[in-house]
Design goal:
11 helices; six-stranded parallel β-sheet; 3 domains; 17% strand; elongated; alpha/beta; homodimer; Rossmann fold; DNA-binding; 434 Repressor (Amino-terminal Domain)
DNA sequence: CTGAAAGCGCTTACAG
DNA sequence: CTGAAAGCGCTTACAG
């Protein structure tokens, strides 16, 4: 009891207090007491452990087990985006449930840092590895990431389709976005498509086009960027041009905000004169927007959860995994995108004459 | 050389390959070779280490040194916000520079999770601890956070002023925001103040008011929330009421976006008819907005960096810190908020008659 | 049913 | 200048 309070108790301290050996302490605290240790001694051990607030030294446990109960997460920039946090949240909750902790390295898109990140993490002897992308993209799994259970979140490697990868079902999301407008009665839809070099925009466009086509309608597409300003510019062009559409599907919520902004500046009301569908369900933008944005959510949290679950599963399945996982072909899994209905979609107003600019509807 | 490639090399492997003892390997690789080990043997050891890609097992090192080279970060929700990422980025870069890694636990504002978070992290024997708040607030340092170097980022404990705390200088930020408008020639300024219960809004308001007062002007204040929709509502009221101001200081960029939205709906141009200053320099909003928002940036990255540097410093200073830090009174440090000039502020238009709604200025 | 011993991989006195 | 030994805290065969 003269142990200074600042020093953490060891199993020896517990053994001394309970009057048993360290082995007994270990057995009991690891649930292998029954049949090995007398019940009263078990109770004494537990009591001593509780009194001393004993927690096994993880370095010692790791040294013995060659497991660190730690998962490495390398991300391209995910800690710097609002919805990236959701992915991390799903991941860390899944990890925590099984007693694992996440160690995060953010590379901010710098190639050099990425190589270092894997090296650092492997050096730390993480039990598994994850690469999480800020937004959907292709990703070439580097050599440094192999030899340990590994999964991809929000990205996939076309050259290594057997690597477990968890991505949003963007095509279905695009279909859902179009369906929202179709169900409200829109026929005349333009897609503010985002940047063409992003795979998400291509996939979403495929979905929107397919759904519209199935209903017998053509789709007009305008390539944009991903920012509010891109939405303003593109929407201004579309809304002042010929054949003004009654509905807009936007590449993401930021573009949708830009579209609303542009509409307002032109004296057009959303959703009265124009319906707008966003994408992402960005917490800072979609719900708080006026009008609140109807949008397609990205299942980032589930993606994070599923990716960690997979790594943990591989770890449990393959006892030798910590030293070099063998993976069999499993491939990419598509996680559905929930539809979030709010206030930016309404039936198209009967097209009479062009709405007069300058009569804001509220 | 028959070592399977999946097994990581140990110092024994290196010693065998170099033909020396493990001690020699340790000495050389830890920079204490000179004067102890013959130069040619040193070279042999380094070569062997490189060839085997030897990396010391961190569990073994930790067990011996009782240092994990790991810092625990508990956050209230920081991983779920865009600018929270900046804080984490600053923190992890500072940590990395000295060979430390960050382990992050996000509590999502759940009290219970917070207690668990500290417990988990302490159980992992982190060398130091940080609490990082998503936005400026007071924070009662819990018992579980003591006994190890500790710092607060983006928050402070009024009951424990000696705890190192790093926060933005919001008063100076508020002054700077007002100064921007004053310098452009505005006299008639309204503050869309955010929620009154937040300490940031109070501090910013003090700054704005002080700067205006020093110039001989009064300040009108409207309490709002923090979201786009709050900005829309408040700005609509202010802009349609008597004594329409020529300049608006907004509690944050989201409110500023709402203010611009409201102005546009009323047919008012920003910055032609109304100047708007934001706060936060939110990456998704400020620069991409149309017009790009002039705003006051939050120095989140520096805050994260400084907090980690402080913990690391305490760790280095106090050799017994890992087991129970003794801290002397240091208190809170204010980090300045940079001014970011973009396009949402202009000189006030000579007040003639009210600008006609419905003539968008571009 | 229980305790003594070995060993995970490292570093640091301590002998030679 | 170098190697053998001890020990960090744990768990798991292995004797008793």
């Amino acid at each position: 009891m003269t142990r200074p309070p600042s020093r953490k108790a060891t199993s020896q301290d517990v053994a001394d207090l309970a009057g048993v050996s360290r082995s007994a302490v270990s057995l009991v605290l690891n649930g292998r007491g029954d049949g090995n240790i007398a019940p009263d001694k078990q109770a004494a051990i537990r009591a001593a452990a509780a009194q001393l607030e004993y927690e096994p030294n993880p370095s010692a446990v790791s040294l013995r087990s060659s497991r660190t109960r730690t998962l490495g997460v390398v991300t391209d920039a995910i800690a710097s985006t609002a919805y990236g946090g959701d992915l991390l949240r799903g991941a860390s909750e899944a990890a925590e449930r099984s007693g694992h902790l996440l160690v995060l390295v953010d590379t901010h898109y710098e190639e050099q840092r990425e190589a270092d990140a894997y090296r650092t993490l492997r050096g730390r002897r993480v039990d598994g590895l994850l690469f999480a992308a800020m937004s959907l993209r292709e990703y070439a799994v580097p050599e440094a990431a192999t030899g340990v259970p590994f999964a991809l979140a929000n990205c996939y490697d076309p050259a290594a389709p057997q690597v477990p990868a968890f991505v949003a079902d963007e095509v279905a999301g695009g279909r859902a976005a179009a369906r929202l407008l179709l169900d409200a009665g829109h026929r005349d839809v333009v897609l503010l498509a985002g940047a063409r070099d992003a795979v998400a925009s291509t996939l979403r466009e495929d979905g929107v086009r397919a759904e519209l086509a199935a209903a017998g309608h053509a789709l007009r597409t305008v390539e944009t960027g991903w920012e509010i300003s891109d939405g303003v510019a593109a929407a201004t062009t579309v809304l002042t041009g010929p054949d003004r559409p009654t509905g807009l599907v936007c590449a993401n919520d930021r573009v949708a905000v830009g579209a609303v902004l542009a509409a307002n500046r032109l004296g057009l009301d959303v959703p009265g004169d124009l319906s707008v569908v966003g994408y992402d369900d960005d917490a800072a933008l979609a719900a708080p927007m006026v009008p609140a944005l109807t949008t397609i959510a990205l299942p980032h949290r589930q993606i994070g959860e599923a990716a960690v679950a997979r790594v943990l599963d591989d770890l449990a399945t393959d006892p030798s995994a910590a030293g070099g996982a063998r993976r069999t072909g499993h491939g990419t899994v598509l996680v559905p995108c929930p539809v979030v209905v709010r206030d930016s979609v309404a039936p198209p107003r009967r097209r009479a004459s062009r709405q007069r600019a300058g009569s804001p509807s509220r």
